[in-house]
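User: Can you write out an input/output pair for a complex, sequences first and structure second?

Assistant: Here is one pair. Inputs:
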Amino acid sequence: MLSKLRHKTVGIAGCGGLGSNCAVALARVGIGKLIIADFDVVDGSNLNRQHYFRNQIGQKKVLALKDNIEKISKDIKVIIHDIKLTAGNIVSIFKDCDVIVEAFDDAEMKQMIIETVLLEMPDKYLVSGVGLAGWGDNNSIRTRQEGKLFICGDEKNEVSETNPPLAPRVGIVANMQANQVLEILLPPLPTASGSLPAGRQVPEGGEK
Amino acid sequence: MQITLNNRPETFDEEEMTVSELLLIKNFTFRMLVIKVNGEVVKKEQRDTTIIKDGDDVAVIHLISGG
């Protein structure tokens, strides 16, 4: 079943806490190709939640993440874009993706990519991460579907000085995004009773 | 009118209203929002002219920083 993933391409928009951890999860399950985009460099303060290492401080995130992914899997193809994503370049960078993962830090950027994909790439699945700051309150983190847009997170906890982004909750949301990508790309998993889980609106047989 | 707002039924005294009026009534004051009415994106500059009426399905997504 998982062999289907070898022929799938996932775009990762932003390689911070959400993007780096989501990309690593997708690499581990055998996604064929990742298209990763970010303009930033690894900073020491990122290591509390992002999938980078001390010896990578100062490196471009896309290069460091590609290195880390290729240490996990030799079969995956990683395409990097060292660029600031805008409404003007998102379509061309991610047009060949089966699913796009929104993994920006900034609310304004999140709005920009969601509106751009909904308006200009209406057939594309988009999995966004919204609300992950702080700690605890596991049960507030969930997924909401609006057509082909999925929102993972608590939709309420914004990052601030008193509400920092930390590895556990950022990792939960990043992995929830990766898990949503699998639900989109793979056929439904039968439940114990043999019926399909409630609320699924992904076509049978997974995304073509 | 009765509409579906973020997957929940909501009833208003008004027969219809603009998206901007809905945001005001519901006190949705977040700076960054993505709004869909019946599946169609309503951009910021369209909020004053897009009318919501009985039976409409409205999604208001609040975008907050962190990633």
